[in-house]
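User: Structure please.
Assistant: Input sequence and predicted structure:
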Amino acid sequence: MLKIITSRPVSAKKNMDRDADLLNQLNQYSDPILHFYEWESPSITYGYFIMPNKIFNYEALAKHNIDIARRPTGGGVVFHIWDLAFSFLMPRTHPFFSLNTLENYAFVNNIVLKAIKQMLHKTKVTLTLEDAQVDLSLQKHFCMARPTKYDVIFQGKKVAGAAQRKTKLGYLHQGTISLAMPNEQIVNDVLLNEEIYKAMLANTYAPLKADVSLKELNELRENMKKNLTHFFKQELQGALSV
């Protein structure tokens, strides 16, 4: 029904290579795959078409011991320090695979929506999946600084983002869920554009503050993994019972 993969802590490149390999071998799987990453050091991934030399201060990356890697999907820059990152792979033969890319985004993001609602169940504010249209052309390369179509939006701000790549074998969905606000000093150090942090602050929702303890961040991350696993299984079981 659903294959779960939790990688041991590895480099950002190895995590991205694992996803690329799974996508290339998707014809060997009849069930969808949910892949939770573990990082051996603080990491950043960036979309396939981004030119990293125009984005990053490499001396600052080394100073903060931040590993970077290109994703096999598109999208912007994602800090894997304050988020929960995962991928989901859907074989073309599965009943819930669609030729319509937006339907595939909606399928996964509605599951993410349920997982986040579970995390924020005490809030009285409604969490909705919105088709947000925000003109932030300057921030187009920064995933959590720019809400886009089929992102998960909470209180008008982006709480989860994603990018997909579809092939003749199925699709790879790489997602990120904000757990804590980014550290201003780190963001401004490693990115060449100093306006990015302001955009992230203005357009990103995270349940925890930037100075959250590592213990609290990891506890929330583990809870989100459980939520995602539960709701993916629930949704996919529903597909099989129809």
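The first helix runs from residue 12 to 24.
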